[in-house]
Amino acid sequence: MSLDGKVAVVTGAAGGIGRASAVRLAQDGADVAVLDVNEAGLTETAAAITATGRRCVPVVVDLFERVAISEAFARVKRELGFIEILHNNAGGRLREGAQPFDTASAQQWDYVVDLNLRAVADCSREVVSEMKAERRGRIINTSSEQAYRGGPGFTEYAAAKAGLLGFTRSLALELAPYEVTVNAVCPGITRTAALDALPAGRLEASMAEVPMGRMVEPEEIAHAVSFFASPGAGFVTGEHLLVTGGRTLR
């Protein structure tokens, strides 16, 4: 569905799901600002977006810094205008990989919760007031199947992603009277660089639990993001779309 004339922001857009979603929104007609700490990756994403004929504003930003977040969104508004679509995609875990709860440090917990939950709230705060005033807007959060399944060695990640679903539901209720929707996409095992952090044998064991027998591609998650951003999803809010190949059915 056409997003012509709309402005989108995608966080964590230097690669993987973020890049795929940013490019898909541009293909749908939106001008897209892409945020990430990885400048080289952002440059590649921006090139893919401009190749579609849409405008792109790449912003290098550390989502652990609230002032930097505010400055990044202020720049996007100056250069592109009213932000109607926000895809809170940035997230992940430390490269130490899965660790038992009793050996994961407090610092690791802080990192994962701040990146996957607190930063989402900070970015959303930058757009909500204007969306309410305009009585239009889409917020799309990237959660995870881990919010439903949990998993040994993933306690802090599962907790943060489950918290993100609670945030999604609650914000959806707050913003529904203003015609602003808030939804979440919950990817399964996705072909991204994050898989490199898994311990040996963990990926193979996880893949054995996927009924469809393969990973999900970032572009398939982007299809779900595109749906939630579209005019056709205007009456869909507070929902969580699992894209897992059936893994959460077991």
Low-pLDDT runs? none
Figure out the total of helices: 8
Structurally, the number of domains stands at 1
Major sheet: size, sense and barrel closure? Answer: 7 strands, parallel
Any idea what the CATH superfamily is called?
A: NAD(P)-binding Rossmann-like Domain
Give the termini separation.
33 Å
The dominant shape is: globular
Relative helix content:
40-55%
Give helix and strand order, one letter per element, not per position. EHEHEHEHEHHEHHE
Strand content range? 15-25%
Question: What number is the mean pLDDT?
Answer: 93
CATH architectural category: 3-Layer(aba) Sandwich
Query: In terms of structural class, how would the helical and strand content be classed?
Result: alpha/beta
Alpha carbon gyration radius: 17 Å
Q: What is the CATH topology descriptor? A: Rossmann fold
* Number of extended strands: 7
**Strands ordered across the widest β-sheet:** 3-2-1-4-5-6-7
Tag the structure with descriptive keywords.
single chain; 250 residues; Rossmann fold; seven-stranded parallel beta sheet; 44% helix
Characterize the structure shown:
By secondary structure, the protein is an alpha/beta fold. The protein has a single domain, classed as Rossmann fold (3-Layer(aba) Sandwich), CATH 3.40.50. The protein has helices spanning 16-27, 39-50, 66-80, 106-134, 146-149, 155-175, 202-207, 218-229; strands at 7-11, 31-36, 56-60, 85-88, 137-142, 180-187, 240-243. It has a 7-stranded parallel beta sheet with strand order 3-2-1-4-5-6-7, with helices on both faces. Helix 1 runs parallel beside helix 2, helix 1 (16-27) packs across helix 8 (218-229) and helix 4 (106-134) packs parallel to helix 6 (155-175). The chain is globular and about 45 Å long. The two termini are 33 Å apart.
